[in-house]
Design brief:
6-stranded antiparallel sheet; 7-stranded antiparallel sheet; globular; alpha+beta
Length: about 290
């Protein structure tokens, strides 16, 4: 429900509310990806790996730097939750909050997935998106959001009072544990907020609550990324299916997702250099 004001409005309330909005990180302040080079590199690339992610489960994959990877809808409308790590250092992982601040609530071609502090560098660049036509709908929703966290068994226990083990958080935890040959308790702290692939979301115009609606994805649709560093990824096929009604459920129609990894002709990336870690010296004013 709408929040009721707890205090009467002051006399200058309209003036305070009327201040201009200022974009925190304006377009053009970030060094852009070389999209013409990446577009050219897409031509003639060779598929070197493929991973099928079962419904209500997750799988890990590796995408070496200088390669491309795609997340593909293969049987039906299905949302996926994506985690990314530096394959050599799990402490460097995808930073959804900073990606949202630097780009927008929903990402698309040319946007980059940024890593956590203190490295803060591009991990992957979005190079193709067959749902790029969707834009913003009448409800203010878009696809591929970096707003939502991921469905998890702790919130499910809080709200429903029972245990559900196929939330995306649990799925990603099992996938990482398997990929690293570690226990789920060791793996779980590395699981982080996600890119909600294919998910259609926004904020309601009256209460500003996070909402979801049926994903527009269809079999054959895909989103494609260029790996800026050596990546370990994990993708969960969300138990909500297309997330048009619910999540954390065994009642929704769910489908597999496919991850494909491609190697381009190295000559097409001539001059490209994997981004270095952030140059801030980490002195924080004390040295």
């Amino acid at each position: 429900m709408p929040k009721m004001p707890s205090m009467p409005a002051p006399a200058d309330a309209d003036e305070r509310r009327g201040k201009p909005a200022v974009v925190v990180y304006p377009n053009g302040t970030l060094p852009p990806a070389d999209m013409p080079m990446l577009e050219a590199a897409r031509d003639g690339m060779t598929k070197i790996d493929e991973v099928i992610v079962p419904p209500r489960d997750a799988r890990a994959f590796k995408a070496p730097k200088g390669h491309f990877f795609r997340i593909v809808s293969v049987e039906g409308a299905q949302v996926g939750d994506l985690n990314l790590w530096n394959v050599d250092d799990l402490s460097e992982r995808f930073f959804s909050g900073k990606t949202r601040a630097l780009h927008a609530t929903h990402v698309g071609v040319g946007d980059r997935l940024w890593s956590t502090l203190p490295t803060l560098r591009p991990m992957a660049t979005i190079t193709h998106d067959t749902l790029g036509w969707y834009g913003w709908d009448a409800d203010g929703a878009g696809v591929h959001d970096v707003i939502g966290t991921r469905c998890d068994p702790y919130t499910n226990r809080l709200l429903n009072g029972d245990d559900y083990h196929h939330c995306c958080h649990s799925n990603l935890t099992r996938a990482l544990a398997s990929a690293r040959n570690i226990s789920v308790r060791e793996a779980e702290p590395h699981v982080h907020d996600v890119l909600n692939v294919f998910m259609c979301t926004g904020f309601s115009q009256d209460t500003h609550q996070y909402f979801m609606k049926a994903s527009p994805v269809r079999p054959g649709d895909f989103i494609e990324f260029f790996s800026e560093i050596d990546l370990l990824g994990a993708l969960s096929a969300c138990p909500g299916g297309d997330c048009g009604a619910t999540h954390s459920s065994d009642t929704s129609a769910c489908y597999p997702l496919k991850v494909e990894v491609f190697r381009p002709d190295p000559a097409s990336l001539k001059g490209w250099v994997s981004p270095a870690v952030n140059a801030y010296p980490r002195t924080h004013g004390l040295g």
